[in-house]
Amino acid sequence: MSEAPRLQAKAFHRALADRAQDPAGRTWVYLAYDQLNEALNPLPELPPERLGLVFLESPWKGALRPYHRQKVATLLANGRHFALELAERGWAVRHEVLWGPYAPALRALAQELGGPIHGVWAAEREHREALAPALAEGSLLAHPHRGWLTSPELFHRACGAQPPYRMDAFYRQARLATGWLLDEQDRPLGGRWSLDRENRLPWKGQPPAPEPPRFTHDEVSQELFDLIEAGMGQHPGRLDPGAIAATRAQVEAWWAWALQACLPHFGPFEDAMSEASWGLFHTRISPYLNLHRLMPKQVVEQVLALDSVPLPSREGFLRQVLGWREFVRHVHEATDGLRQGLPAYLAEDAALTQPGTGGHEAWAGRPWIGPTQASQGGARPNFLEVREPLPQAFWGRPSGARCLDEVVAGVWATGYSHHISRLMVLANWAQLLDVEPRELADWFWVAYVDAYDWVVEPNVLGMATYATGPLMTTKPYVAGSAYLAKMGDYCGACAFDPKKSCPLGPMYWAYLARHEAKLGANPRLAMPYASLRRRSPEQRAQDLTTAQQVQGAFRKGQPLPEALGLLQPQALPFGP
Ligand SMILES: Cc1cc2nc3c(=O)[nH]c(=O)nc-3n(C[C@H](O)[C@H](O)[C@H](O)COP(=O)(O)OP(=O)(O)OC[C@H]3O[C@@H](n4cnc5c(N)ncnc54)[C@H](O)[C@@H]3O)c2cc1C
Ligand code: SF4
Known about the structure:
Elements: H1 4-7, H2 10-18, E1 27-30, E2 51-57, H3 59-62, H4 69-88, E3 92-97, H5 102-113, E4 117-120, H6 125-137, E5 140-143, H7 152-159, H8 167-178, H9 219-231, H10 248-262, H11 286-290, H12 296-304, H13 311-334, E6 348-349, H14 360-364, E7 380-381, H15 402-414, H16 419-432, H17 437-447, H18 453-464, H19 481-487, H20 504-514, H21 516-519, H22 526-534, H23 537-556, H24 560-563
Parallel strand pairs: 1-2, 2-3, 4-5
Antiparallel strand pairs: 6-7
This protein binds flavin-adenine dinucleotide and iron/sulfur cluster.
């Protein structure tokens, strides 16, 4: 293991040395990059003075994909501070930097430290795969992960042993098991399990959107951010240190802000989108929940205790964390990362043999040079058998469609956008263009700070592109411009008019027509297909022409307004 990175972490090692504990007589625990909470310690019966943390930093893993700089910075800064916090509490810390796979490093450490290392069952399939040799030979022992709110047994009891899996059935069982938001007869407070109908307001500027906190950093974080800024130029995305919570105190401050500023209005504006605020009343805690800097149980219980917050907001939040977040994780595990137990109807291309980059090559004009002993790429379910490349618009080339350009600009500036902009802007455009789902999933994986295989794959492949067919949703989420014009305010500054010239409407009809063989009999799409059948042959021919023009423009990287005979678009300020 190299000495060089230690020299590049001078402030971190000084801080670690200040808190150094005698390593003799310790039992060693490996907590992975996304297990940054002492509550996940698999040996809670031992006092800190008898525990040692194996803290692995892996430039090898970071180089597997062209991850957003903000993501790399968030992970590493939180990892380093977590190690320091445990050292402060009396743990010994053994820090290593990995330039190759995990298993040989863990084997060497187990030998040196005099016994097997205790670990926690990894959330990411990719990490489970990386640890498998160490588990098989016994240098690593896996313990259950205490961060989840529900068990696989509950999932299968609610959803059955085989797909299709349904979130509403799972959520009901999870509510009954936890007792959250139930009356004395175990009925849901508010009379319905989901109060989603109350949560569909567009946002017109009031109440004012809250501004997330900004942080100044100690020398441990600053040294890291300087390193990333100077040395990771090949990674895309803007590094914005002020937006990163790195210490436990900063993460807690972020969560206190979310409770006080976001939750009171969380529910009603959950589906709204605005150029004036990329996050509106969303909490933006997913990076910290997925790293376990915040524990799901803690955040749910604190939200449910907010008596002054209206029930639809509290229920809406509960449904996201207890419902969707747990559900997608179970789908991931039950299908081994969408590789096993999938229905026979599913067309599937062979899984990638190395990590995908989400179209980075085409944008950068050169291949992404990752480590040679790389892990595998992801599964490629493709129910609709669609194979268009991801447009360069997702990498910041202005398309002239304001909604798409604005959300993409926000993602490269922050590593974040909220749920509806992911689903109804980005994935909607990709679906209407027949983009290959795996390439889109890999784009989300590299571009978002909160993305890990267990959560990004079910969301993109299962929910947002219908690549797994009815495995976990009943229909594709696709829409024309009316939805975006109602729930967002992008159209006002767009070269297109949502009611007249926007191509999304014709693209929507052309999508339905193109996929009629697979979607036409879906009862949830009965109304759209009835409307499609009422369109005249001339209208349908025009839909097809527009869809083909848009497709052609994206393939050439030509701005849409120009391709469709309107004016040249304005460039937005942020690309990767
Ligand atoms: C195409 C697409 C890709 C997505 N990729 C990811 C991803 O890589 N990582 C990720 O954490 N979420 C992903 N999601 C889910 C969701 O969009 C984000 O969790 C949410 O936007 C995070 O922002 P927030 O913390 O402000 O969420 P809030 O709106 O404040 O919600 C609170 C929490 O609920 C949880 N949550 C809500 N919906 C989901 C969901 N569908 N799946 C899992 N958790 C959920 C998150 O932990 C979130 O922090 C994706 C959704 C879509 C449609
Ligand atoms: S007019 Fe169409 S392309 Fe433009 S912002 Fe609205 S929905 Fe998007």
